Amino acid sequence: MSERCVLKVLDLFCGCGGLSLGLEQAGFDIELGIDIWQDALTTFKANHIDSETHCQDLSEVNFDEVSNRYLPTGVDLIVGGPPCQGFSISGKRDPDDPRNKLYTAFLKAVDHFKPKAFIMENVPNLASMNQGKIRDTIVKEFESIGYTVSHRNLLASDFGVPQNRRRFIMVGLLGGDQFDFPSPTHMKNKISCEQAISDLVESSIMDGAKYPLESQSLYQAEMRVGSSGVFNHETTKHTEKTVSIISLVPDGGNYKALPDSLKGIRNVNIAWTRYNSQKPSLTIDTGHRHHFHYKFNRVPTVRESARLQSFPDKFVFLCSKTSQYKQVGNAVPPILGRVLGEQLKKHL
Questions:
Q1: How far is Cα 125 from Cα 329, in angstroms, rounded to an integer?
Q2: DSSP per position, 271-287
Q3: Share of residues in the chain with pLDDT > 70 (%)
Q4: Does 16 qualify as catalytic in the annotation?
Q5: Considering the entire predicted model, what is its pTM?
Q6: Pfam families attached here (predicted)?
Q7: Which entry of 5, 84, 193, 319 is annotated as an active-site residue?
Q8: Nearest residue to 121 (alpha-carbon basis) of 58, 78, 169
């Protein structure tokens, strides 16, 4: 039997490890996750037991030390989502903007390790900010250190994630090869909220308890593989007033369904939105709790949100419930990571 070719990954701004999980599912080895938030790293380590974690502000990381301590033989792939807000109107980096230090750290890591490839993910409007000048500046900076860069806005629901989450994805390959983005697999057969979470009941379930219902869809069956039971399904107790207002909004509806006297209670246009049972969910947020279950008069649980992000049920979130919501909301959907990983392996 020939030895398996192991492709090693360094995940920067790794959060709880959604992108790493997807890459792991695609056959990559996750060597190290670096993030400034210890809660996210606690969850990362619990679910990536063979990986190392390092808690530090990325702008202060010394990559020589990281090499010596964790990655003496280097890495094949660097991934991460550095903030890119520190770019000026002209598209150039403002050297005095402290937010630039995080993007610079990502660039430095790629330049230091010279991996075969990198994946950078960001907000979708990065592609169009300042008429594309910011995107073009970033491309030039990576080209200057030897990478051929491709980029695209991807919609997660096009690839089997039950969520309409758009992300800007930039992939760089060392040398002259151009990355071919994967083709959508679910343009016409998107996974709906109901297909994703209808087996999770209205009330809380104790961590580790057996599933109260049989799986109702192929997606649910896939999410259950390897899980010993239900975790992170603790419901939120809303006030009677909140519950009564939610009850007035139909499946897939929003604040427009409310009487005029109630419309202005939450002054954001996404307030009082119910997920549509027959469509993918809206983008999972980090706990602002403006979106409600398509059927029950409450916000989704952490587990329901994780399902909509395509985290399998065996992936357990740790620390406080507020922290767990933030960890889920900040993550890259693992299925999207897996699709990108599988495509990248064809080039590597």
A1: 18
A2: TTEEPPTTSPBPPP-SS
A3: 94
A4: no
A5: 0.94
A6: DNA_methylase
A7: 84
A8: 169
